[in-house]
TrEMBL record:
<protein>
    <recommendedName>
        <fullName>ATP phosphoribosyltransferase</fullName>
    </recommendedName>
</protein>
<dbReference type="InterPro" id="IPR015867">
    <property type="entry name" value="N-reg_PII/ATP_PRibTrfase_C"/>
</dbReference>
<dbReference type="InterPro" id="IPR036069">
    <property type="entry name" value="DUF34/NIF3_sf"/>
</dbReference>
Length: 115
């Protein structure tokens, strides 16, 4: 028989963030409940990879980095974290949006299947 925790839907939150803002964004999603595995034995779990983000701010943008009209490349981290329960996923996204320095943070949420 499955436990109530294992019956909750699982999601993966994936986001990109400039490296200087990485600790604040991770702290925010972890405070919202992301990165906890069922059973409570592991918390603040995530996978982080480094790469380069690229964007060109449009005429009405207010970029945190770079200048309007100019192509910008930024060292960024990609973070992947488990969210157990839709409420945790939504809370983590909300916390990420508040902590992230960009006008519109790049993130995705995927529903996970258990096979």
């Amino acid at each position: 028989m499955a436990s109530a925790v294992s019956a909750l839907p699982r999601f993966k939150l994936v986001f990109r963030v400039p490296e200087p803002a990485l600790p604040a964004c991770k702290a925010a999603i972890f405070s919202a409940g992301a990165g906890r595995y069922p059973g409570g034995q592991y918390t603040e779990c995530c996978f982080t990879t480094l790469g380069t983000g690229q964007f060109r701010p449009g005429d009405t943008a207010r970029p945190h980095l770079g200048k309007v009209g100019e192509l910008e490349e930024v060292p960024e981290a990609r973070v992947e974290a488990l969210c157990v329960g839709e409420d945790v996923a939504r809370s983590a996204v909300s916390a990420l949006k508040k902590a992230h320095p960009y006008e519109t943070p790049a993130y995705e949420v995927y529903r996970l299947e258990d096979f």
